[in-house]
Amino acid sequence: MTDAAAARPEARNPRGFADRRGRDLVAERRLVQRVSAVYERWGFEPLETGAFEYADALGKFLPDADRPNEGVFALQDDDDQWMALRYDLTAPLARFAAQNWETLPKPFRRYAFGPVWRNEKPGPGRFREFVQCDADTVGSDRPEADAEIIAMACEGLQAAGLAAGQAVIRVSNRKLFDGLFEAGGVTDPLQKLTALRAIDKFDRLGWEGVAALLGEGRLDESGDYTKGANLPLGVAATIEAFLASAGDAGLSRAATLERVAAAGGLGAIGEAALEELAAIDRALAAMKVDQSAVRFDPTIVRGLEYYTGAVFEAELLLETIDDKGRAVRFGSIGGGGRYDDLVARFTGERLPATGFSFGVSRLASALRAAGRGDEDAVRGPVVVIVFSEADMQHYLDAVSELRSAGVPAELYLGRAGMKAQMKYADRRGAPAAVILGGDEIAAGQVTIKDLDAGRALAAGVADNEAWKAERPGQRLVPRGELVSTVRSIVEAARTAS
CA distances (Å), 290 to each of 28, 34, 50, 173, 285, in order? Predict the structure, then answer.
């Protein structure tokens, strides 16, 4: 190996960061566009904040104050202040609201979308950079504000392409567990947080696994040991009865609340949480949100520490498979809740807030795994084939006419022959190729090859004579009919899809 070769960098992705093109980008942009339209229809205004925030503005979720680069990607600015890439879109909102509260309409309703970054161990379907799309109301403590966010999230899921029964939003209230802990004499914040993280694994580990994490701890299949919360046995038993109250998915929201109340041990804080959930249920019913679309589920706690009340989690119910045909469970595709203490970090005054976030990248991947990605196939431009340098003006005129008529088109600018150019057009997903050879130019004509028709015939999609007659693979038409002929091919392809 030469010294020059040894000095060349290896072309590789950083772990957890993916290159995306074509279909993936189109899918995500389409989801963002559709969900954003829902947010705007509900009266939320767009807001964009920078990718970086000062590390202290991101708060207690950074584990290392001296060098805050665990959990986030951080760097030190030239003024020695630490900055970090945002790990979600909510912490920047809290900073913005605190900084501009005097001039904002109150309550302040905003939506935002964009990439977020987390310095975590990457894995299958788990990236360090991904896209979120949020909507939040800051300045309202009314349960109806939570209900509106939930109902809007339901409409957002529909806009994303999910029909009834293909997703559900599960709702609970973090204060239910606050009441349980208070009634059981559990006051240590770390002990409570450890218990909540254990309960958050209920759907994956079942009661046996959660019980171990509420007690001494648990050894998982890989041999890793997770230290438990060491809750008193009586509190753990109360939590078991509490979680069992969530077992029947067929119950109405009101019936679920009755069963949770019957489990007992909630204390005054927990009873207040039940009243808040009942108010949310009444508002959802008034907005005609179906019982199957939104369910109350006391096992939902959400992972981030800043939630203070109602919490929501959207779960995909579609059957999904991986690229090897194996069934996979995507689970959560979005979530949120009430976070009344986040802005107070800056102002010292409690400011109620509630919101919901779609995991756009995750939802797009889930839809594709469910076989719902065909609509996101990227349509390439019409390709104008090049034969001779001497006829370049004719090719440039043709591609300009198509673009002026609103038809995406490109002139082939490589140096390959016609066969390779046709292969290029096919790989680009072009609906048609425009052929202006010497004979066509001399006769004032143009040959247009319908590439979509050719693909369909090759795949055996349509083999009847009538279809072949309507969609011939190649047409020779007068030069003046170039645009109308190409447009008919493009429109026919759009209608068929």
Answer: 27, 21, 38, 20, 7
**What is the tens place of the pLDDT at every residue in 393-441?**
999 999 999 999 999 999 999 999 999 999 999 988 899 999 999 999 9
Residues annotated in a binding site for L-histidine: 88-90, 118, 132, 136, 302, 306-307
3-state secondary structure of 188: coil
Rounded CA gap, 316 and 325, in Å? 18
Q: Distance between CA 158 and CA 164 in Å, rounded?
A: 8
Domain range summary for the chain, segments of one domain joined by +: 22-51+86-186+232-374, 381-496
Report the candidate in 246, 264, 30, 283 with the shortest Cα–Cα distance to residue 143.
283
Q: Give dist(CA 422, CA 426) in Å, integer.
A: 6
**Domain 22-51+86-186+232-374: top CATH class:** alpha beta
Chain Cα centroid distance, residue 81: 32
Annotated binding site: 88-90, 118, 132, 136, 302, 306-307
Distance between CA 482 and CA 320 in Å, rounded?
43
Q: Does domain 381-496 have CATH number 3.40.50.1820?
A: no
* Burial class (CB within 10 angstroms; exposed 0-12, middle 13-18, buried 19+) of 46: exposed
Quote the pTM value: 0.80
Neighbours of 327 (CB within 10 A): 9
